[in-house]
Design a protein that fits this description.
Blueprint: H1 3-11, H2 27-36, H3 44-48, E1 52-55, E2 67-70, E3 74-78, E4 84-88, E5 96-99, H4 105-112, H5 126-136, E6 140-146, H6 148-152, H7 158-167, H8 169-192, E7 199-203, H9 216-236, E8 241-244, H10 253-259, E9 263-265, H11 275-282, E10 287-289, H12 303-316, E11 322-323, H13 336-349
Parallel strand pairs: 1-6, 6-7, 7-8, 8-9, 9-10, 10-11
Antiparallel strand pairs: 2-3, 3-4, 4-5
Length: about 350
């Protein structure tokens, strides 16, 4: 059974030979692993057998990217969203946005004019070739895109975006819809021109440590119509939809199901997302991906990570509906040997 067959069955809540495996190590983590035994000529995806491969389009307004300052510690540059960003060179932290493009409706109108579907938004050369290769390798191929609230944090200062969501929800919904429509049009173009997909993976962080960043009522008023439009489109193509949303988004889950999402990822343990609890409550309607506490991977007592994997996977894998992933991404305090053991344990307890 290949990855495509395995993940399709799992997302249909069917048991297969084993649970699928996917993960997201930091770039700095991979650099560490190279020094500790990961061969230079093999990617982590190939070495550990990750099963999902993503392809997408450039849905930014494509403002010019320019380096404003660079030193041994960080790089400050303009962004394709029209802002200014500071990033540490080892990319171990979330970039700091120094300036944002949209501060008024006039700014949005300027951005909106640049959000049109265009052939040049896609890597047709290596992208299409790699898409064919991964499809022939049996990988589960997803169309990837940022959407909604999370995407617009690249345009608008977070505090201001949250205020506008309350004060002017119609305007914010229009912005989210405009970008989502571009996502759909580019997916159509890629499919028509030869890209093959098995699903979609959309990214919209809507939670923090304690709960969602906005109320379920605000979600239903602004984001639900956007998410439903996206899910309806991908479902019309026979493609299940995975949602990445960090933080604690449990209060939104009934509405995410209403929107049409098929799977929720990454289930951050430190934010209170409990895989077993979620599986019990929503497992008949929603699949899950993640929920394995990454903090335990580097713990000197390796019995802790084994117990974590054994307990959660043995429960979550029942009746399908679960894909292994860390509860966010793998940081560089996890050694190569520690992570190798994680995958060995996932394979051991993930068998049906």
């Amino acid at each position: 059974m290949n990855s495509r067959e395995r993940i399709k069955k799992v997302l249909q809540h069917q048991e297969t030979d084993r649970i699928p495996i996917h993960d997201s190590p930091w770039g700095a983590t991979v650099s560490r692993w190279r020094k500790e035994g990961l061969p230079d000529d093999i990617s982590p995806e190939e070495y550990f057998g990750y099963e999902i491969v993503g392809f997408g389009a450039d849905i930014t307004p494509r403002y010019p990217v320019k380096t404003l300052e660079k030193n041994e510690e960080f790089i400050i540059e303009t962004t394709p969203f029209g802002g200014i960003r500071k990033n540490f060179r080892d990319y171990t932290t979330t970039p700091e946005i120094i300036d944002y493009k949209i501060k008024s409706k006039k700014d949005w109108e300027e951005v909106k004019e640049r959000l049109y579907p265009d052939f040049t938004r896609v890597d047709w050369a290596s992208g299409l070739t790699n898409n064919y290769r991964e499809y022939e390798n049996g990988k589960f191929i997803v169309y990837t895109s940022g959407v909604g609230y999370d995407l617009f944090q690249s345009y608008i200062r977070t505090e201001q975006l949250l205020i506008w969501m309350i004060e002017d929800p119609d305007w914010i919904r229009e912005m989210f819809m405009t970008s989502a429509q571009l996502t759909i049009e580019m997916a159509k173009m890629m499919i028509e021109k030869g890209f093959r997909f098995d699903g979609a993976w959309l990214f919209d962080d809507m939670g923090y440590r304690n709960t969602s960043l906005f109320s379920p009522q605000t979600y239903c008023n602004i984001s639900l119509p956007v998410h439903k439009m996206l899910c309806d489109f991908f479902h019309s193509k026979g493609l299940p939809v995975i949602l990445h949303s960090c933080g604690n988004v449990k209060v939104l889950i009934p509405h995410l199901i209403e929107a049409g999402f098929d799977c929720l990822q990454p289930l951050e343990v430190k934010a209170g997302m409990d895989l077993i609890e979620l599986k019990k409550e929503f497992g008949d309607k929603l699949s899950f991906m993640g929920g394995i506490d990454v903090r335990l991977m580097s713990d000197p007592d390796q019995n802790k990570i084994e117990n974590e994997i054994k307990t959660k996977i043995n429960f979550a894998k029942k009746h399908g509906g679960y894909i292994y992933h860390s509860d966010h991404s793998v940081p560089n305090n996890v050694s190569f040997q520690q992570y190798k053991r994680v995958i060995e344990l996932v394979k051991k307890y993930g068998q049906y």
